[in-house]
């Protein structure tokens, strides 16, 4: 007992240094930069217009009301239609699912082929694909409109999905390729010797090992597709406007007095779905990154 007591060395308390204080101050400023505007948006969405006219943007609502949220969801006007952002919500869902299916399936197969199969000119193809990721969308927008028009999908949900898949292909392929490169070569050799074809190996071996990477890419794509404005308004046509387009039209279509509480509520309704995805799958997102999803 005495030996254990003699060998016990108390841990030294960490001293607060100037560097620690500077880092904490910088992080606090970064947090305030994002949290203060979000706070203003949230409290404004629960205020009445009488309180908003006072100009006290940081004050809490004197009378909490859900009326702006109800109006933003079902009654706010977008152009000549007063259906709220709910119509755009369901249109965004229709865009989201085919876009996810196309982008994840194509990029995962491409990354799998480049990482584990001796594809001719794989390095050159990967270099060209990666360089395409830096080309601004506005430069290729007109050719994409012509291409989707020729294949008959322009102005449809599938037209938006195809464009999302094409634009996401370079980065997602790189992410999948880097992840699959860590799969031991012995597994692939054994699978090939066991009469495993390209698609059979992908289906029975690669996919069961890819849960973490699919979660990472899923979160990235959901955020990108849901928050998109330009692709949806350009390729979706008049009947397939996503929620972001409805939100923009709602804000600029006001006549007379602007209902800032309704605009803030509509903005929050548009932002809630990707936020929920982060809260639900955030743990798996971190696991996917630490498992090697995003690395050099």
Explained architecture:
By secondary structure, this protein is mainly α. The chain folds into 2 domains: 16-65, no CATH class; 87-249 and 263-290, MetI-like (MetI-like fold, Orthogonal Bundle), CATH 1.10.3720. It has helices at 2-7, 18-45, 49-52, 67-74, 86-116, 122-132, 137-150, 157-180, 185-193, 198-206, 211-226, 230-235, 243-252, 260-290.
How would you describe this structure in keywords?
296 residues; 14 helices; 0% strand; MetI-like fold; 2 domains; mainly alpha; 70% helix
Q: TL;DR of this structure?
A:
The protein has 14 helices and no strands. It has 296 residues and is an all-alpha fold.
